[in-house]
Write a structure and sequence with these properties.
9 helices; 14 strands; elongated
């Protein structure tokens, strides 16, 4: 895209824009305001660096160990396609696609990657089976997808199940893994870049930031959202949440976050109509209705939204000098 195009007049409670390059002056102001993020900060997930020493396995060493009887069958690769940009597909994922006999592809992310690879001159010889799902409409039920993977592998074919984002982040990859393992099929897993992290990054929104947020939760809002604890320093990322946005905003506003907590909706990340809408929990449902927000979209809730260059001035003012672990902590005023 050729820059930031204002899609609606910025208001004190929200704004909307088409995503383009982050304005240089806005980016530099954010960088100067924030201290270097070199020190480690507490997060909801910790890793023991000394627990396992990882080597550099080749492709044949990935995934679950072969089960008895699997030698006569093909292999199923569960490959994360990322958010739909072919440039974000992993090298190992590309190698799996190149060696596949059949590709079983999702609608979101996967189809965009296949089209992007073709546009770049990458020729894949595999048969492509589309099992894409639309919101509220599953053309191919999950049980049928599981059976398809098993049937194709049992015929001796190399199968790539190309899934949007990461197979294990609301991708039902675990269900497909277990179905194949129960049938004695060798399964390999290639992680992908999840839209929960990559799409907010398009709008200049980090999910954690020293002095602003030390943890985040990724939840599906496809159904009614259950109450989530924490305040504005605990970022919430909602996937599949456009249809239930009003209810989700009401549920989150009832807690510690409050109705004036910043919210951003990033539509069609890495797609042709990518766009960002910024508001608060109190205003975002009305803004989304007025602007005709549609799926796919990622919703980000929390003070990190203030860091986006697309946040209106009323939300962008944020004191980054406070200690998020200090007690008591007073949330920055709007």
């Amino acid at each position: 895209m050729s820059g930031v195009t204002e899609a609606a007049d910025a208001a004190a409670s929200g704004a909307g824009a088409t995503i383009g390059p982050v304005p240089a002056d806005a980016a530099s102001e954010r960088a100067e305001a924030a201290a270097p993020d070199a020190a480690a900060s507490p997060t909801s997930t910790t890793a023991r660096a000394d627990a396992v020493e990882l080597g550099a396995p080749d492709a044949t060493e990935l995934g679950a160990p072969p089960t008895a009887g699997a030698a006569a069958s093909g292999t199923v690769w569960l490959v994360g396609a990322g958010p739909g940009d072919a440039g974000l597909l992993t090298l190992r994922g590309l190698r799996a696609l190149e060696s596949a006999d059949v590709i079983v592809a999702d609608r979101l992310g996967a189809r965009g990657v296949l089209d992007g690879l073709a546009a770049e001159g990458v020729h894949l010889v595999a048969e492509v089976i589309d099992v894409g799902k639309l919101p509220g409409h599953h053309a191919v039920p999950q049980d049928a997808i599981n059976a398809l993977l098993v049937r194709e592998a049992q015929s001796g074919r190399t199968v790539v199940r190309l899934k949007g984002g990461d197979p294990y982040v609301f991708g039902r990859g675990g269900e497909e893994l277990f179905a194949c393992q129960e049938a004695g099929i060798d399964v390999r897993v290639v992680p992908g870049v999840t839209s929960a992290v990559s799409v907010p990054a398009l709008a200049g929104i980090p999910l954690t930031h020293r002095g602003v947020a030390t943890s985040f939760t990724v939840a599906t809002a496809h159904d009614q959202l259950l109450p989530l604890g924490g305040g504005r320093d605990h970022t919430v990322v909602l996937l599949m949440g456009v249809g239930t946005l009003a209810q989700s905003a009401l549920t989150l506003a009832r807690g510690e976050r409050g109705g004036d907590c910043p919210v951003a909706i990033v539509e069609d990340g890495f797609g042709a109509r990518q766009r960002v809408t910024v508001g608060t929990l109190a205003t975002i449902a009305a803004q989304a209705a007025e602007r005709g927000v549609r799926s796919p979209a990622v919703v980000v809730v929390g003070d990190v939204v203030r860091l986006s260059p697309y946040a209106p001035a009323a939300l962008a003012s944020l004191d980054l000098t406070f200690d998020p672990l200090a007690v008591p902590r007073k949330a920055p005023s709007l």
